[in-house]
């Protein structure tokens, strides 16, 4: 019956890959199964074909918990091949209870066979109540490594799946699938979903040709990508860390007549769908993406995957290169690594993967001291980053330590709290060891594919004979960069404008700001050559070089020329600092001399100001600056154009508050901020 069903979908010559038929048979027989198989093996075939067969014999619908909307859209399209109907419930499409109820009813009436949901939906009590009405034949946990705290892409809401299993009938089939789980993650997932049969296969990807290359600067990476991307036929993906990196690299490729677009979480769903479709149809050469286009995205003929950055683990790297070569004989995966900034970014993400124990206790005590409290109130009163607060609240809800009412107010339960600091620390330490393993991968002289699959505890790991290490040469790209190619990137950076957009509302009052600065300008991003030059100037030399003065003057001249403003009409005002009192003012004075414009050092800060990085959310950042920044001279500027100058810009609150102070003091002025480097921009 299984082979006949397979051939109804894929033709008379179709055969199962090793283990697929066993997994389907176990699912049909109401067992709990964990499938750990390489990317491209066909894990979705297992649950879609099982669904087709189970629906034919009268079983309930298949409920699939899937982590990414892009993956869900991709898979809904593929169900049509099986003659089954799929739908999804998520916050983007069906927002009301009534809309969601209609989807559940369609599943129960046989009009829909597969229902996709994201794990985040499991936090809503009304949705859980709806799911309790769903006639489920099979529960699928896709990308199941997300269940595990030890997994490379842990999602707290996946821990609710254990609770979901308590309300669903005990006789349903359960299937968990992943390509990126080592032994410790497998053990954890097995415990979460209950006693299950593990079907594990070889993780070696025969179609992939791996290469790695040390390029320590953004300029070198940009130059290499532009030089080599057209050597590969078809389309592909470039993975980058931050939204700004994606946008800028895509712009650089378009500048070189390469059809490229950025893909990330800031895009609206309509734009994401368009880009996904364009990539599927090979209408664009490359998507430059954050991890938003990652797990399970199934395009058979992706011919290359580049990593513009160093992934946080070998597991993450394996998972992302797995987008390539799924239905073609040869695909190329190149890791471009190097630069101290990469390590800083990755270490930040790792250490932020769980909140600090003291923060958890602070939030718990705050809620305990209030009968009912909204999240916005907690944000206002507590100095915690919004993303960390979201994570803390989610973990406290999952552990049953707090509850949320219909008005989105939180209150404490009677359940006692026991510290998990030791456990969380052990997870973070393990993630740091995983990252060190990736650093070791960069340096290894062994087979690259074997290194990756060994790290995933594949007992069948062996040399691939295809990576640049095994071959001893690499003929598919030209890795030698000449000065002209790097200078071309530097020129692109110099001529492109990094805009500092104004904030429009106060985080303290939640009201519109009375005075807002114009669109400002940054000289560079922190990880670029000029950004690193600024970093050395601030933290090593305590002096900003003439190179930075000249580059800033040149860029500002072009920026204001486009706005038909004469730089000689500007008055430059430096942002003060109590810690490095002369650094920015001296730079601003030299910049004014170069631009032949006025200079006024009229802003100051009161003593004992705490470090800005100690303020972790917008409210505290803004209030901290308001408490210490002031105008210390009563002067007549005799100008309408002010250029505010600082070294680095992140939250933009310093520029925002300084603009308000100046706007309240002087009439008819226009304020434009300028910074040497942007340090923000992570997803």
Number of domains: 4
By CATH reckoning, the class of the largest domain would read: Alpha Beta
Tell me the helix content. 40-55%
The general outline is globular
Structural class: alpha/beta
What is the tally of helical segments? 25
Mean pLDDT: 90
Plain-language structure description:
With 683 residues, the protein is of the alpha/beta class. It has four domains: 2-200, P-loop containing nucleotide triphosphate hydrolases (Rossmann fold, 3-Layer(aba) Sandwich); 208-347 and 441-480, P-loop containing nucleotide triphosphate hydrolases (Rossmann fold), CATH 3.40.50; 358-423, Arc Repressor Mutant, subunit A; 497-678, Rossmann fold (3-Layer(aba) Sandwich), CATH 3.40.50. The protein has 25 helices and 24 strands. Strands 3-4-2-5-6-1-7 form a seven-stranded parallel sheet, with helices on both faces. It has a six-stranded parallel sheet with strand order 8-13-12-9-11-10. Helix 9 crosses helix 20 (483-495), helix 14 (357-368) crosses helix 16 (386-398) and helix 22 crosses helix 23 (583-595). The longest helix is centred in the middle third of the chain and has 23 residues, at 421-443. It is globular, with a radius of gyration of 28 Å. The two termini are 47 Å apart.
């Amino acid at each position: 019956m299984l082979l006949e069903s397979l051939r109804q979908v894929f033709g008379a010559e179709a055969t199962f890959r090793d283990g697929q038929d066993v997994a389907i048979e176990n699912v049909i027989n109401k067992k709990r199964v964990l499938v750990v198989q390489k990317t491209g093996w066909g894990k979705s075939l297992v649950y879609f074909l099982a669904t087709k067969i189970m629906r034919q014999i009268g079983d309930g619908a298949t409920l699939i918990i899937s982590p990414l909307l892009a993956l869900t859209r991709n898979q809904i399209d593929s169900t049509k091949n099986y003659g089954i109907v799929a739908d999804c419930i998520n916050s983007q499409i069906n927002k009301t209870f009534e809309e969601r109820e209609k989807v559940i009813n369609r599943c129960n009436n046989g009009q829909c066979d597969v229902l996709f949901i994201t794990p985040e939906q499991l936090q809503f009590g009304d949705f859980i109540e709806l799911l309790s009405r769903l006639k489920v034949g099979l529960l699928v946990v896709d990308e199941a490594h997300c269940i595990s705290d030890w997994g490379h892409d842990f999602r707290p809401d996946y821990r609710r799946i254990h609770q979901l299993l308590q309300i669903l009938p005990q006789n349903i089939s359960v299937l968990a699938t992943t390509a990126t789980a080592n032994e410790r993650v497998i053990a954890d997932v097995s415990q979460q979903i209950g006693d299950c049969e593990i079907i594990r296969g070889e993780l070696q990807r025969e179609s992939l040709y791996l290469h790695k290359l040390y390029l320590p600067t953004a300029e070198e990476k940009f130059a290499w990508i532009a030089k080599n991307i057209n050597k590969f036929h078809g389309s592909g993906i470039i993975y980058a860390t931050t939204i700004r990196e994606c946008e800028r690299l895509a712009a650089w490729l378009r500048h070189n007549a390469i059809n490229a677009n950025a893909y990330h979480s800031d895009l609206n769903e309509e734009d994401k769908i368009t880009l996904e479709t364009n990539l599927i149809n090979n209408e664009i050469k490359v998507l430059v993406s954050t991890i938003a286009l990652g797990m399970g995205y199934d395009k058979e003929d992706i011919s290359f995957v580049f990593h513009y950055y160093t992934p946080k683990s070998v597991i993450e790297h394996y998972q992302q290169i797995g987008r390539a070569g799924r239905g073609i004989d040869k695909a190329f995966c190149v890791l471009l690594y190097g630069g101290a900034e990469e390590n800083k970014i990755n270490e930040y993400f790792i250490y932020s993967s769980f909140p600090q124990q003291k923060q958890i206790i602070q939030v718990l005590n705050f809620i305990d001291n209030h009968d009912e409290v909204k999240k916005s109130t907690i944000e206002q009163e507590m100095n915690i980053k919004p993303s960390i607060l979201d994570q803390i609240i989610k973990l406290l809800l999952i552990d049953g330590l707090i509850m949320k009412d219909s008005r989105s107010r939180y209150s404490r339960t009677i359940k006692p709290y026991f510290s998990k600091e030791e456990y969380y620390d052990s997870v973070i330490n393990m993630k740091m060891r995983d990252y060190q393993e990736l650093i070791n991968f960069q340096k290894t002289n062994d087979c690259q594919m074997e290194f990756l699959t060994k790290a995933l505890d594949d007992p069948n790991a062996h040399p691939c004979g295809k990576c640049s290490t095994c071959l001893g040469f690499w003929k598919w790209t030209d890795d030698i960069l000449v000065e002209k190619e790097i200078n071309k990137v530097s020129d692109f950076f110099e001529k492109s404008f990094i805009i500092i957009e104004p904030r429009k509302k106060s985080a303290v009052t939640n009201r519109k700001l009375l005075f807002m600065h114009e669109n400002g300008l940054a000289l560079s991003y922190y990880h670029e050559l000029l950004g690193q030059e600024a970093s050395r100037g601030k933290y090593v030399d305590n002096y900003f070089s003439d190179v930075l003065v000249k580059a800033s003057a040149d860029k500002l001249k072009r920026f204001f020329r486009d706005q038909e403003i004469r730089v000689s009409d500007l008055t430059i005002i430096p942002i003060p600092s109590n810690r490095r009192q002369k650094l920015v003012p001296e730079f601003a004075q030299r910049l004014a001399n170069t631009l032949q414009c006025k200079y006024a050092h009229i802003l100051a800060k009161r003593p004992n100001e705490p470090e800005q990085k100690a303020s972790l959310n917008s409210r505290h950042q803004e209030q901290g600056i308001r408490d210490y920044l002031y105008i210390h001279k009563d002067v007549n500027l005799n100008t309408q154009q002010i250029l505010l100058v600082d070294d680095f810009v992140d939250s933009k609150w310093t520029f925002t508050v300084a603009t308000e102070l100046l706007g309240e003091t002087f009439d008819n002025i226009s304020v434009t901020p300028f910074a040497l480097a942007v340090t923000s921009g992570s997803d």
